[in-house]
């Protein structure tokens, strides 16, 4: 349940502070961050998974790479695997994650990963999280980003990582 979700707090260097924050509490501690993750899933034919946010979520019906918040006590890799499974039904192995880097927003860090899945896996979408999903080329991902069809805060957070993300997606597609 999202209301009970708690996050470990990090300092400006990204180190754990030993503090936690309950999602939705009104006062955000100054100088503190929480960790979020996003995982760019690449199918064996080189296509990339995009999910469309549910109509009831913030930034409704915009496209994104699966991801979300790291819960208290979780590692970023554990959260990346959990978020992809919860949103799409895909089961990833932590060892399959390739870390791209870390973006920064006003009160959060975003760790971005790439993972490759074999074949054409069946998706089981969580309707509370995901309205629909599609497999697209990397060029289509960039087109949706450039057309404003992805949440602006995430686009800004991804911006410094985008060239490396594109490179790692290309490597994953060639390996697949």
From TrEMBL:
Q: Which family does it belong to?
A: Belongs to the Nudix hydrolase family.
List, separated by semicolons, the cofactors it needs.
Answer: Mg(2+)
Superkingdom: Bacteria
Has UniProt tagged this entry with the keyword Hydrolase? yes
Q: What is this protein called?
A: Isopentenyl-diphosphate delta-isomerase
The record's listing under PANTHER family reads:
GDP-MANNOSE MANNOSYL HYDROLASE
Provide the alphabetized UniProt keywords: Hydrolase, Isomerase, Magnesium
Q: Which SUPFAM superfamilies does the entry link to?
A: Nudix
Query: Which major enzyme category is it?
Result: isomerase
Listed EC numbers? 5.3.3.2
Q: Write out the GO MF terms.
A: isopentenyl-diphosphate delta-isomerase activity
């Amino acid at each position: 349940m999202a209301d009970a979700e708690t996050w470990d707090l990090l300092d400006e260097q990204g180190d754990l502070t030993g503090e936690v924050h309950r999602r939705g509490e009104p006062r955000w501690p100054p100088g503190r961050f929480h960790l979020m993750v996003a995982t760019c899933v690449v199918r064996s034919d080189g296509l990339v998974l995009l999910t469309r946010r549910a109509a009831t979520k913030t930034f409704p019906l915009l496209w994104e790479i699966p991801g979300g918040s790291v819960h208290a006590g979780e590692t970023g890799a554990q959260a990346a695997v959990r978020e992809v499974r919860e949103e799409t039904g895909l089961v990833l192995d932590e060892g399959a994650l390739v870390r791209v880097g870390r973006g920064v927003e006003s009160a959060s860090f975003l760790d971005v990963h790439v993972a490759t899945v074999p074949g054409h896996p069946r998706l089981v979408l969580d309707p509370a999280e995901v309205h629909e999903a599609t497999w697209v080329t990397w060029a289509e991902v960039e087109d949706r980003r450039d057309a404003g069809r992805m949440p602006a805060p995430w686009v800004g957070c991804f911006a410094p990582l985008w060239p490396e993300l594109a490179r790692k997606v290309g490597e994953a597609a060639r390996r697949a």
